[in-house]
Please model this.
Amino acid sequence: MRDRLRIEKGRLTTMYRNPNYTGITTEFWGSCDAVGGREEWTLWGTPNCGKGQPGQVARVGHGAAPSRFRGVQLGVRG
Model:
């Protein structure tokens, strides 16, 4: 899994561990102002869905590219 790093003034700085965020859906997606290209796209997931007896082997995942969001509150504790 890739590290989640903060970018400050064009440089990678702080690494986030177990990052989380909060927001209203339309405001969150409206704050996205950059998405990485095809070369940055990565498939994330697991090879086992964890269902069934015996366990089923069914890949579960989705692809994503690094994205930039402005003004999103990070590190929210529940």
